[in-house]
Amino acid sequence: MEGLEAAAFQIISNVGTAKSLIMEALFAARAGNYQEAEEKLTESKQYMNEGHHAHMDLIQQEASGEKLPFSLLLMHAEDQMMSAETIRDLVSEMILMYKEMRS
């Protein structure tokens, strides 16, 4: 696997794991397990950071003058990263709503 493909799969893998953890956080909060929900969100940040690092490496390569080819795989990776970020923000708010509704 070449550099661009490897980076794209690294992004997809990491943000996919983060998204799964974020959804697990929501399910835990729905069940009233707020401590578990917070732990899942914290763990998801580690995977999001790994995905962002892989993405930033590609951005730095291009910024330094290296021409990166167009890649649908990379577009998919970026889409997955952005949707995971959106889901994280929404789930964080939903967890707060569950807490407020039950207190």
Largest sheet: none
Overall radius of gyration: 16 Å
Can you tell me the overall shape? Answer: elongated
Chain-averaged pLDDT: 96
The CATH class name reads Mainly Alpha
H/E topology pattern: HHH
Discrete helix count: 3
> How far from one another are the termini?
51 Å
Note poorly predicted spans: none
The fold-level CATH name is Methane Monooxygenase Hydroxylase, Chain G, domain 1
Estimate the strand proportion: under 5%
Structural class determined from secondary elements: mainly alpha
User: What is the oligomer described by this structure?
Assistant: single chain
Summed up, the domain count is: 1
Tag the structure with descriptive keywords.
Methane Monooxygenase Hydroxylase, Chain G, domain 1; mainly alpha; 103 residues; single chain
Structural summary, described in words:
InterPro entries: PTS_IIA_lac/cel, PTS_IIA_lac/cel_sf. Its cofactor is Mg(2+). By secondary structure, this protein is an all-alpha fold. The protein has one domain: Phosphotransferase system, lactose/cellobiose-type IIA subunit (Methane Monooxygenase Hydroxylase, Chain G, domain 1, Up-down Bundle). Helix content is 86%, strand content 0%. The protein contains 3 helices and no strands. It has helices at residues 3-30, 34-63, 72-102. The longest helix is centred in the C-terminal third of the chain and has 31 residues, at 72-102. It starts with a helix and ends with a helix.
